[in-house]
Design a protein that fits this description.
Glutaredoxin; 9 helices; 4 strands; 53% helix
């Protein structure tokens, strides 16, 4: 059975999963949620995603939600397909670095990058007013984190160690968004050369280019 990814083609978390599926060359069908009628908030949807969020994955009846968990699941189950996104060594320390990298993204990047995207992009799309104070707080917080990212990537090639893993792709949706909004946190080669080199490699991969403007299924 082909995997079914239930979500919105434009949603950041749907694209976070889609880039992994494309990188691994795993066939899947995108089942588009009907935002106009609030399908993702319906009782039927919440049978599969109890928090009323997107996306969720249906793997022949096995239901999994939370985009980071789905990304790791795909990288693990389809380890031999497409690009290897787990380390070639499975020792404790190597695996711990991957978990550390996932935590770095979730705690030190996503909150501020998502906040900026919400305030400066999503609110405008909804006709709501941007909160300048919130924007300032998100900017200051993320700016303060950048030295940490530069330090990590000066010691290792990728966020989860010295090999490309699924963790690097977790940054793609909001990294693309804040860059499009004019922030140079990930592209400033003078202040953060290691970050800029890493981001240029990740964001230019065919898998992300295929879904950055909207997730789409991958035929078998």
């Amino acid at each position: 059975m082909v995997l079914k990814l239930h979500g919105s083609s434009l949603a950041t978390c749907t694209r976070r999963v889609a880039v992994i599926l494309h990188e691994k060359q795993v066939p899947y069908e995108l089942i588009e949620v009907n935002w106009a009628v609030g399908e993702h908030k319906s009782a039927a949807w919440k049978q599969y995603q109890p928090f009323g969020q997107i996306p969720y994955l249906d793997d022949d009846g096995f239901i999994l939600f939370e985009s980071r968990a789905i990304a790791k699941y795909i990288a693990t189950k389809y380890a031999s397909s497409g690009t290897p996104l787990l380390p070639s060594k499975n020792d404790l320390q190597t695996l711990a670095l991957i978990d550390q990298g996932a935590s770095i993204e979730n705690n030190n990047f996503n909150p501020s990058a998502e906040g900026l995207t919400w305030e400066l992009m999503f609110k405008k799309l909804k006709g709501e007013e941007t909160d300048p104070k919130a924007v300032e707080n998100f900017e200051n917080t993320l700016q303060a984190k950048m030295e940490g990212f530069e330090a990590v990537l000066s010691r290792q090639k990728y966020i989860g160690g010295n090999e490309l893993t699924y963790v690097d792709f977790l940054f793609c949706p909001y990294g693309e968004a804040i860059t499009a909004l004019g922030y140079d946190y990930l592209t400033n080669e003078t202040k953060y050369p290691h970050v800029a080199h890493w981001w240029k490699e990740i964001s230019s991969r065919d898998s992300w280019q295929a879904v950055k403007d909207g997730a789409k299924g991958l035929p078998a």
